[in-house]
Design a protein that fits this description.
The structure is a single chain. The chain has 13 helices and 37 strands. By secondary structure, the protein is of the alpha+beta class. A hairpin with a 6-residue loop joins β16 and β17. The longest helix is centred in the middle third of the chain and has 17 residues.
Length: 759
């Protein structure tokens, strides 16, 4: 037993000797020495009361009880003419806790952690809690690979029996992994296994990823990744025998050794299905199993087969179905056979849908997206579709949906939806840098107005080229069955004298109403009606096409426009898309009552295809055709343009297509744009969904009527690197592009970015 424990027992030993006297009846009890503790508190812990006979055993028990409270560092019992006097000396309280020298952690986070080990302002000071607190601070830093951290503790006594506790932290530098050894590998060399692991030795990008800093959690994840790799390659007996992690005497270098046993590669010798056929036949079940005789064993294929069978049963309401793959292993032949035992259990229905985390968004905004109804039979596809639709709202950073069985029943479950809201207001600023310097644009939107799910956008753009004032409002559930209604009011002024387009001034005032009718959960039909008035003012540098237009229609025109659209959206998420597609078709028509008669049709198809868990291929096609009808030409301000962000990056905005004699863009009647983009996480940030890099290839062209000055006609291509970051300040998109077939007359803009600020 150490000295501290002996010191703690001395008062008890002393008290025992004191009370080796004749017992007496307690006439009264008096407490002395208390400052903060109420006398009633002492009385409540004493195992004796007035009228009891105090003897040696009861005196010892009283001392034990008072010491056990933790309130006192010394307790003494005295007797005076039948009065029991309890003399105590209270432990000090913690007046303050300070942590200095901390840079890697928020101080409040560390203070909160110290509360869990018993040290906090206002609590009784306990030396054991102080020691635990010091170890907790060291543990936090060691978890980040900083083994050389030094924590110095100071306890200062204050008046009124209080103490001030301060920790001075010398963080030191992180310990780096200098070598990783793998022992026992024969089927794969070390380099192949190192590619599976995230932990690595210092390299070009480890200053950013921090993967050269040892972490027990990261090592455990790497070992599981290695186990998965081997198990998916047929090595059923793979095992990690031991791990050794050593550190250099100066605590700067880490050395890791993994001892593994690969075992033999197993193949599948047979697959059978057992269990009831009342819900799912054996033949249908067998089609969902991705393992066949002669295949190399794969744990992922086995897990995926079980999941598919379970989801198929869940589609019919069998939420509690048991699907077990029972192995029969032949170690001599290195073969394994599986019998899939399927028990659908009891059919279940959803009792209640519970929603949490939506502090801003109203419950009805979320509930109307559910396709799984309360009191309805459980259906896997409806639950997945519900989660997908909620995710596609774009209001939430995270959407987690799980199920829980209702206690006391075997046919009911609850759906529990937990969301993490994000800022849905957005102040956007667009900018680009090229041969003409920096250009800017901006706008304000609120996609979840007051938590109602309604969309409001107000744009104010006062750039040299476009001056825009517009208000758009959309109610996505104008009717209970999902018909949307929206209104638009806008005023646009255009001054192209500082751009590469043909020079003119235009002033447009318009307003309109639009509706959206859901066809299916993924498809929507839109239609609308609007009216606008446009005044066109020419300059001495205006092209002949614009002069002819004004001579034909006059400087001011009024149009009534009809619009028809169709959208199909199957994306898994509107923010971090990894799978699915978006198709949009839109037709704008100048109705016969207008002074101008024209049509303008566009079609876009955007496809996301997952190549791996973290890598997605995005393919986008965008085409458009426009023209006049009834003997009327297409209005010049309805022409298509291409080039810049959202089109062919690397070329200046609106610069592709026919030009006038002054080399200004005229636009055209046909447009084609294609983009191929490989999306992947920032190195070292695989789990961070807010940051994404991309490698892209863009191509596009605008074509005008015969006789136009060619300008930048024909297809133009570019390639480059892009970055998308949904930062706390809003979405940021940055791209650097290099044109691949640049011509002398082309206008180049290599760097382009957009920046948004949330509010």
């Amino acid at each position: 037993m150490n000295f501290k424990k002996w010191a703690g027992l001395l008062p008890l030993l002393y008290a025992t000797s004191v009370w080796a006297i004749e017992p007496f009846v307690i006439k009264d009890i008096r407490v002395e020495g208390i400052q903060r503790t109420e006398p009633g508190t002492v009385f409540s812990y004493l195992p004796v009361k007035v009228g009891d006979t105090l003897n040696d055993d009861r005196a010892t028990a009283s001392l034990h009880a008072l010491f056990a409270t933790g309130f006192f560092k010394d307790v003494e019992l005295k007797a005076e003419q039948g009065v029991l006097i309890v003399v105590v000396k209270e432990r000090p309280t913690v007046a303050s806790v300070e942590i200095d020298g901390v840079k890697d952690f928020p101080k409040q986070q560390l203070l909160d952690n110290l509360k869990y080990v018993g040290l906090a302002e206002g609590r009784i000071f306990d030396k054991s809690a102080l020691e635990k607190s010091e170890n907790e601070l060291k543990r936090q830093y060691i978890a980040r690979g900083k083994y050389s951290v030094v924590v110095k503790t100071t306890v200062k006594e204050l008046e009124r029996n209080r103490v001030a506790v301060s920790f001075n932290v010398e963080e030191g530098g992180p310990s780096k992994i200098q070598r990783i050894n793998i022992v026992g590998n024969h089927a794969y060399d070390e380099d192949e296994l190192f590619d599976i692991m995230k932990l690595t030795t210092p390299g070009w990008f480890t200053w950013f990823s921090k993967n050269d800093q040892y972490s027990k959690t990261k090592l455990s994840a790497d070992m599981e990744s290695m186990r998965t790799f081997y198990m998916n390659s047929g090595y059923m007996d793979f095992n990690i025998e031991s791990t050794q992690v050593s550190i250099s005497p100066d605590k700067q270098d880490i050395f890791i050794t993994l001892n593994i046993s690969e075992g033999e590669k197993y193949t599948v010798s047979g697959v059978k299905v057992a269990g009831t056929q009342a819900v799912l036949s054996h033949e249908e079940t067998r089609k969902m199993i991705g393992l066949n005789e002669g295949d190399v064993f794969s744990r992922d294929a086995l897990t995926e087969s079980t999941r598919k069978i379970g989801e198929r049963l869940g589609e019919d309401g069998y939420a509690f179905a048991n699907v077990n793959a029972v192995p029969e292993v032949d170690k001599a032949k290195h073969q394994v056979a599986f019998t899939f035992v399927v028990d659908p259990m009891q059919r279940a229905y959803v009792r209640r849908i519970n929603i949490s985390g939506n502090d801003k968004s109203r419950d009805e905004v979320i509930r109307r997206e559910f396709r799984q109804m309360e009191s309805g039979w459980f259906a896997t596809s409806k639950i997945k579709k519900s989660k997908q639709r909620i995710d596609r709202l774009g209001f939430f950073e995270q959407v987690n949906l799980d199920t829980s069985q209702v206690q006391g029943t075997n046919d009911q479950l609850d759906l529990n939806l937990r969301v993490a809201e994000k800022s849905t207001g957005n102040f956007q600023i667009g900018a680009g840098y090229g041969s003409e310097g920096v250009t800017f644009s901006g706008g304000i939107t609120q996609s979840n107005l007051l938590g109602t799910g309604n969309y409001l956008s107000t744009q104010i753009n006062t750039s040299k080229v476009n001056e825009v004032y517009s208000v758009s409002y959309t109610n996505p559930y104008y009717t209970d069955d999902g018909i949307s209604r929206g209104f638009d009011v806008y005023k646009r002024k255009t001054n192209t004298t500082s751009t590469y387009t043909s020079q003119y001034y235009s002033n447009t005032l318009g307003m309109g109403v639009r509706f959206g009718v859901p066809i299916t959960d993924d498809e929507t039909f839109q239609y609308g009606l609007s009216t606008e008035k446009t005044t066109l003012t020419l300059t001495s540098s205006s092209s002949q096409r614009y002069i002819d237009y004004v001579n034909t229609f006059g400087a001011t025109t009024s149009n009534v426009l009809g619009t028809i659209g169709w959208t199909r959206d199957t994306r898994d998420s509107a923010i971090y898309t990894t799978d699915g597609a978006v198709q949009r078709s839109y037709l704008e028509i100048g109705l016969p009552v207008s002074s101008q008669r024209f049509y303008k049709w566009t079609y876009q198809h955007e496809l996301f295809y997952p190549l791996s868990r973290n890598t997605t291929l995005m393919l986008n096609g965008d085409v458009g055709v426009a023209g006049g009808y009834g003997g009327k030409p297409l209005p010049v301000f309805k022409n298509f343009y291409a080039g810049g962000t959202g089109s062919v990056r690397g070329y200046d905005s609106y610069s592709l297509g026919p030009r006038d004699s002054s080399n200004n863009s005229l636009g055209g009647k046909q447009k084609v744009v294609g983009n191929a983009e490989l999306l992947f996480p920032m190195p070292g940030m695989d789990k961070e969904k807010s940051v994404r890099l991309s490698l892209f290839l863009d191509g596009g062209a605008v074509f005008g009527p015969p006789g136009d000055v060619p300008g930048s006609t024909g297809m133009r291509y570019s390639t480059g690197l892009g970055l998308t970051w949904f930062s706390p300040a809003g979405p940021i998109r940055l791209s650097w592009a290099k044109p691949l077939n640049k011509q002398s007359q082309d206008k180049i803009q290599n760097v382009q970015f957009t920046l948004g600020t949330t509010f």
